[in-house]
Amino acid sequence: MEPEFWDKNPFKATAKAFSSGFHFKPTTINKTRTFYELILVDSNSVSITHFKDPKDQMLNTHSTIQILKVLQPRHFGSDLNKGRKFSVPFDPVGYTYWDYVDAWTKVFWHQNTRFKHSWLIYFKTNTVYNFPNWFLQWWDFFGPIPKIFPKQESRILADLRCFSRFALSWIFSWQYRYSKTKKKNQYPSLQRHEFVKWWTQFDSSKANQEQVKPWFQSYPEFLKAADPKTYVFLNQKSHLAAFLAGSKSKEVLTKNFKEVLQMLQLEEGSSSKKEETSSIEEEEDPFYQKEDDCFSIGLD
């Protein structure tokens, strides 16, 4: 924070530094937040709705943004620096792919005069998404965190693929804050802090166990591969069980029973030892240590 922009209230400090309506560096004055919102809407990437305060129609209390698709470079054209025109009159008349990438961040830098605006973000039901690599950085900042998930939900839902597949939603908001500094006579840096939380009115049954199981049956490649030794053991045990069940001769059954039993015990002992070792490793791994702002919103 530069001395000439300093104010103990960070919101007043940004008003000195940024142009009216901007909450990001205005490198080009006509590339406003509305410009970036139009990019996403005009490219059919999102659907956005702003909700007004019943007592003040100039105040946006919250907004919803439904993600319809995310354009990859190959979908834009051979020249990412070439402008694509809007379908409606606007200044600027168009945008490049790099403007499109920026739009996914800058569109969210909307704030009302009370600094109490929030976004409800969600995916479209029954839609297959293909995400470019840069969108993973967007997900890290704007996406949900496991801490906000309902207790009955599985951790698997933290994955971008599952959120998009099951059309899950979450709430995002942000505020200005100053960083803490230990040095005297040094102005703190101005930072943007993001917040996410679960939308309690969301129908989480869309992603319950009965909904998730069929999806993994259709995409078995996302299941953790079984241990080869365990697989061989189980397969062998199945064959041995079938052999014993199909033995018609009492003499054959008696002759081979001891050998079969020894094989099973040997394999089971090896498996149990492995499971015991695995259990110890897990205990040592620290990983194994023991306001809802949006109301009456229908999601498609």
UniProtKB/TrEMBL annotation:
Region feature (Disordered): 268-300
Protein name: Uncharacterized protein
Lineage top rank: taxon: Eukaryota
